[in-house]
Structure formats: structure tokens, C-alpha cells
Amino acid sequence: MKKFGKFSYAFILILALFVSGISFASTNAASSLSVSQALQVQNNSIQTVEGYVVGKPNSSTTVETSQFSDDYALAIADHVSEKSTSNMLYVQIPSQFRAGFGLKSNPSLMGKKVKVTGNLTSYYSHAGLKNTTTMTLVSSGGTSGESSSNLDSYYQTATGKTGSALKSALHTIIDDHNEISYDNVWEALRNTDEDPTNSNNVILLYTGRSQSKTSNGTGVDSWNREHVWAKSHGDFGTTMGAGTDLHHLRPTDVTVNSSRGNKDFDNGGTAQKEAPDTYADSDSWEPRDEVKGDVARMIFYMAVRYEGDSGELDLEVTETVNNGSAPLHGKLSTLLEWHVQDPVDDFERNRNNEIYTNYQYNRNPFIDHPEWVDLIW
Fold it and tell me: Which residues, 6 or more positions from 9, have their beta carbon under 8 angstroms from its beta carbon?
């Protein structure tokens, strides 16, 4: 080796460093950045970034989360429930990717994870990624189910808590959901409650009947929008928020819905003519066995989502029935029994994912973690 001399040693050293640099650069290029990392590297370098779709940018400080105006851009973030634009990366969508990744054409992309490659540089006067060369879907989301790792991230701040601390943490996670109008609830229910064996129909909550999606209305055998947490219990009516929250709105037979009225939930009573597996007395309603757990988990969701902050009602589950206009719903002990008796099924899971992905961007935690019911109540 001595015969190479000083010049040869210097050349070999430079060559080694050069090869090492190529290898290092290639490794970096192949790996993906998080959105938070990408926000710090706005130097026009070509990078690959992974993040959840949280909206469509329309200014440096605002993003659209529904009724998207075009297919030209995405906002992505490290957390699917991110609301602050300062934690989002704005991604330019070239024409060749708009049909597959534009939100106007594909609103169901909301909440899904994507991987994008391009130049990290300002877009809409905001930290961004432009000249996009590749766009791929990392997780399918939607009705196929949310991955356990995504759910762990979503509920991270609630993990390990119990009692009022758990209830408070879950409230913070699911609070401030995207609100839709009562008119838009019609179309939403056609998707959230679609019959898995017939895409033209919805399943009615209390009767279990599969019925045409377009047969909604006021007729005797039509279906309408049932507030499982009776809207008079707190007198919130059909106002946006509690009155239009899809996590407790279900399609039901018009006549059966009228028979239920604003009754609390409990066992007993006489069988209902159009819903023979459903029973009622003067102050309570007992749904068919197949949805008793669904009803319980919807009531528990409402009691956590609406806690009296931001000018909203404080809804609570109570052991009493015949609660009138008080913001209370019972009967707690019966609902706890129903929750155990009728475990979470695929229809509930798919419905939860549909609401989260395409409408409100929040989840019913008691569908994802049934064990939390006992830790709170």
C-alpha cells in the first residue's frame, strides 16, 4: 500500500467519501419525512413526505374540509384530526394526479394517508410541496376499517386514563367535529346506513327493514331521521351540532319513530305493531336485541361529546326515565346491560368509519374501545 504515495491516498479518500455520500443521499431519498419534518425543510429539495389528508387549501390560513371547490391541492398533516394550518403541508396536485387525488373528485380521501414526492417549497404562501412527481395511497381507511396504529394515534391522549379523566380526554379528542346541515343528513344517512347486501337500500334502526334509499319522507311507510338521543332532552332540536350529529342519527320507519317519541330507554312494555321485536310503555322504549348495544353506545357518545363547553349543552346519562326537556337520558343501568348484551358489530364499525372519513372527522370511541364504557360509568 505504501507504493501509492500521498497523492494516491488522497484520491482514495476522496473517492471513498464520494461513494459514501452517494449511498447516504440515496438512503435519505428513499425514506419518507413526516409532515412536521417537511415543514422545517422548505429548501426546494426533492423529498418524499407521508401524511393524512385533512383538507384542500384555499389560502395560507384556511382549508376546505367539505364541498371542495377543485382538485388542485391537498393539505396533509401528521395527525388525522389536525385543525391548525400551521401544522399542515400544502401539496400541489399536477393534472395527471387530479382524477385520483383531487378532493372534489374524491372526497372520501379525507382522513386517509398518502405519500407524495416533490420539491419542498412554498405553496399558497405556506409551507408546501410542489412539482409533485408521485402520489400514492398508504392506508385505505374508509369502510374497510381503520388500522390499529391509526386508532392508537387518534386516542393517544386518552390511553391509560380512567373515570372523569378518561371522559375529559375523549371529549377533547372528539370535540369540534365538522358539522353538517339537517338537510344534508338525508344524503349522509344513505351512505352511513347502507344495506351491505343491497347498495340501493338503507337498514332501518328499529325494524331492521331494508328499504330504498330514496323512500325517505313523511309517508306512513317512508323513513325519516331519528334522533336516538331524543332532541327534546336538552331541547336542541335540529340545529347544527347535537341536532345534526350523525353519530346518533339513524333512518327509521316514520310510524315507529313517532311511536318512540322522546321516550328514554329501558326494558319492558308491549310489542310494537310494525316492530314486533321492539317494546314500549308510557315512558320508555326497548329496541330489538340486534341494536340494543348500538343505541347504548350512541347515548354514551353524546354524553362525552357534549360537555357544556363552547356554548353547547352538557348532556349526561342518568338512572331515571321520563326526563322531559332536561339534558338527561336514561336509563343508565339498562344501557350498560345492553352494551354488554349486544357487542360492536361490523355495521357499527363501518358506520363509524364512514362518519369519520367523509363527514364529521370524529369517531365514537365506544365502538373503537368498548371497554372504556366500564372505565367511565
Answer: none
Domains of the chain: 32-139 (2.40.50.200), 148-376 (no CATH)
Instruction: Say how far apart CA 312 and CA 152 lie, in whole Å.
Output: 28
CA distance 370 to 153: 17
The residue behind cell 375529559 is 168
- Pairing status of strand 113-120 against strand 316-317: unpaired
pLDDT, one tens digit per residue, over 300-322 is: 999 999 999 999 999 999 999 99
> What DSSP designation does 353 have?
H
Q: How far apart are CA 257 and CA 38, in angstroms?
A: 51
CA distances from 178 to 59, 221, 231 (A): 19, 32, 19
- Asked whether the beta carbons of 179 and 240 are under 8 A apart, the reply is yes
Segment 141-156 shows an average pLDDT of 67
Distance CA 316, CA 48 (A): 46
Measured distance CA(176)–CA(153) in Å, rounded? 18
DSSP string, 76-129: EESSTT---GGGEEEEE--HHHHHHH-TTT-GGGTT-EEEEEEEE--BTTBSEE
- How far apart, in whole angstroms, are the C-alpha atoms of residue 334 and residue 265? 8
Q: What's the grid cell of residue 90?
A: 400544502
Residue-wise pLDDT tens digits, 36-52: 999 999 999 999 999 98
